[in-house]
Write a structure and sequence with these properties.
2 helices, elongated
């Protein structure tokens, strides 16, 4: 397995190209280690992958030391370690999908073979598929394609390549034969390009991340329960309701409510939720008439700010009722739709009323799922 050049006997396997594949090309190689696993983050799809390498002893056996490369993708979803000691990675199986208009992967399995006396044997292990089925709410386009990336005999994975953005768009392996005849300087440089890690510490970090995610989810459940209780109390205190839903590229408003959108995207993509695109230009106008002065009225919005690179975006909106500011630079959360409540009775009057929602100085897009008005009319 000795070779003169680091590039000799190195094979970059074909990268699957699903419909809508985007993201930046990445490539990570270790010429003196073997790839024995990955740290994988997953949510709806595969969010990120990080290669795990192990160096070789002089007798060609695998050292117990673990090194990781650079994470490809972002910090969405939860993380798991997929590693088999004494085995080397030789293949991948996954499914390519068009996820909301962009290439992505799911149903990912890793394939290993036992490493013995510096050789790859036929003894094989295959991990259970990650995310075998996409969640029902995920919007895909076209048909999924099953992919198998398998290395030639006698080769092992010494790197990964593919495309990634805020998640993994497509993935493949780089096959090679580890170099045993390189100098100590070259070997040191190769190892220094990686980060040595402790498996227990890696596992503890992921466990803590999962605990944090579970606690955040519990807080979300508690918040949602309080919001439901508040909305029910508002319903009990009102006798007139107007709503508009943005679904499937259409605006569905109840009688008595007229909704106009300007400089927005309400195509069928992303489940047809309305997207405000242009800062200080994109807006929504909702008009309705009141025959008498209200004593109590609330506006509900189900909306979110687009994330940016796996992090919180910034999509503030200015909410006005009859040209009076109700909320300035209101920036909803990014990770999911959230329902916000605004009391607006003091801004309303007899006759025609107008609610305006305008995108402010945003750096990401703003999405709205629905708006709802709960109004109390004393003589209704």
């Amino acid at each position: 397995m000795e070779y003169e050049s680091p590039e000799k006997n190195l094979i970059r396997l074909e990268i699957p190209n699903p419909q809508g594949a985007s993201g930046n090309y990445f490539e990570q190689i270790s010429h003196t280690c073997v790839m024995t696993g990955m740290q994988i983050r997953k949510g709806d799809i595969i969010d990120a992958v990080t290669p795990i390498f192990q160096p070789l002893e002089a007798d060609c056996s695998i050292k117990s030391e673990l090194y990781i490369g650079t994470q490809q993708g972002d910090d969405g979803g939860g993380g798991d370690i997929f590693l088999q000691f004494g085995y080397v990675l030789v293949g991948l199986r996954f499914q390519t999908v068009n996820y909301y208009g962009h290439g992505a992967i799911n149903a990912l399995s890793l394939i290993w073979r036992r490493w013995l006396n510096g050789q790859v044997t036929n003894e094989e292990l295959i991990s259970e598929p990650l995310i075998p089925q996409l969640p029902s709410y995920v919007k895909t386009f076209g048909s999924a394609e099953r992919v198998e990336v398998y290395l030639p005999d006698e080769y092992v994975a010494i790197g990964i390549c593919g495309r990634a953005s805020s998640y993994v768009n497509t993935l493949s392996l780089i096959a090679g034969k580890p170099a045993f005849d390189v100098s100590a300087i070259v070997r040191t440089q190769d190892i220094n390009a990686l980060v040595r890690v402790n498996l227990q510490q890696m596992e503890q970090k992921l466990i803590q991340e999962q605990r944090d995610a579970d606690e955040a989810a519990e807080r979300d459940r508690e918040r949602a329960q309080l919001e439901q209780q508040q909305e029910q109390a508002d319903r009990d205190a009102t006798n007139y309701q107007l709503t508009c839903e943005f679904l499937g590229g259409t605006r569905s408003a109840t009688d008595g409510l007229s909704v106009v959108t300007i400089n927005n995207d309400d195509s069928g993509a992303f489940d047809g939720k309305l997207r405000l695109l242009y800062p200080n230009r994109s807006c929504i106008r909702a008009n309705f008439d009141l025959e008498e002065q209200t004593t109590f009225a609330v506006l509900y919005l189900s909306h979110l700010s687009s994330g940016m690179g796996g992090k919180k975006g910034y999509s503030p909106v200015n909410i006005e009722v009859n040209n009076k500011c109700v909320a300035a630079n209101h920036d909803p959360r990014s990770d999911n739709y959230t329902v916000d409540r605004f009391e607006i009775a003091s801004y309303l009057h007899v006759g025609t009323n107008e609610i305006t929602i305008t995108l402010g100085d945003a750096t990401t897009h703003y999405w709205i799922e629905w708006l709802k008005l709960l109004i109390n009319l004393p003589n209704k």
